[in-house]
Amino acid sequence: MSIIQPLLVLQDIDARIRAAQQEARDIPLRKEQEKKRLTGAKELLVTAQAASKAAQARVDEVELEIKSRRDKITTLRSQQVNLKTNKEFAAMNLEIATIEGQIDALESRQVVAMDAVVPARARVQECEKKLHDDQAVVDGYGKELDARLAVVQAELKQAEADRVEALKDVPPAFAPVYMRLISRRWPPVVALEGSACGGCHLTQPPAVSHTVRRNNSLVICQSCGRILYYA
Ligand SMILES: [Zn+2]
Predict the structure, then answer these.
(1) Which ranges of the chain have pLDDT less than 50?
(2) Distance from the alpha carbon of residue 212 to the mean position of ligand 1, in angstroms
(3) 57: which residues sit within 8 A by CB, 6+ positions away?
(4) Closest to 178 (Cα-Cα) out of 229, 130, 143
(5) CA of 46 to the centre of ligand 1 (A)
(6) Mean pLDDT of the residues in the chain
(7) 218 Cβ contact partners less than 8 Å away, ≥ 6 residues apart
């Protein structure tokens, strides 16, 4: 396979170039995907913050209701001293007692509402921590990807330099055939498998496979146009 050997060397280099180009294209996409992983943690935090705010609002709301009733009792008591009859006095006592009963019920509700505040706040902290931890993982992975991209770009540069050298060893008549093929078929140079093309698997006519076996000229697959060699 002497005559094809320089093309195989070139093809190996092109394989390196293609892999490096592919990876260089993929790395920014992988970084974007990683960032999207934070979306879930961010959404959970927003939900937890809203729940915590709502829990606190319920406590505040009951607090206001209690205050307005206490104010009402203070007002009633100040009015009570001016009342003329025992009957009026007793009626107002009853009114005050009713409001005090409402305050008791509201205070029980407040206790329940306050019990909900603590776990809601804990949940917010938990979500903040999760987001923080996820962010650290994403940042760490992002740095690894950046480092990998630098390696890939260096590899690409080296492979391109190697390609220039390798091309010098390719017979001038072969290079244009290879160049045309590379944009349409990969790999462009394939071994004969039995008497079939290693790329498209079409069985070659005996004369063609016989010529390939000699490895001393450029032979093209009758179907896919790949360059054939005998390994
Ligand atoms: Zn073929």
Answers:
(1) 1
(2) 13
(3) none
(4) 229
(5) 58
(6) 95
(7) 3, 4, 173, 174, 177, 227
38/41 Cα distance (integer angstroms): 5
Encoded tokens for 56: 């606190």
Please tell me the distance between residue 221's alpha carbon and the centre of ligand 1 in angstroms: 5
| Rounded-to-integer distance, Cα 224 and Cα 204, Å | 11
Tell me whether strands 189-193 and 196-197 are parallel, antiparallel or unpaired: antiparallel
Domains and CATH numbers, the chain: 18-158 (1.10.287.1490), 177-229 (no CATH)
CB 229 within 8 A of CB 198: no
**Do 69 and 97 touch, CB atoms closer than 8 A?**
no
Are the C-beta atoms of residues 229 and 8 closer than 8 Å to each other? yes
13 contacts 162 by C-beta, under 8 angstroms? yes
How many Cβ atoms are within 10 Å of 132's Cβ, its own excluded? 11
Phi-psi region of 215 (alpha: psi -120 to 50; beta: other; left: phi over 0): left
Q: How many A from CA of 25 to the centre of ligand 1?
A: 29
pLDDT tens for each residue of 82-111: 999 999 999 999 999 999 999 999 999 999
Encoded amino acid at 202, one letter: L
Cα torsion 148, 151, 155, 161 to 10°: value is 140
Helix, strand, or coil (residue 10):
helix
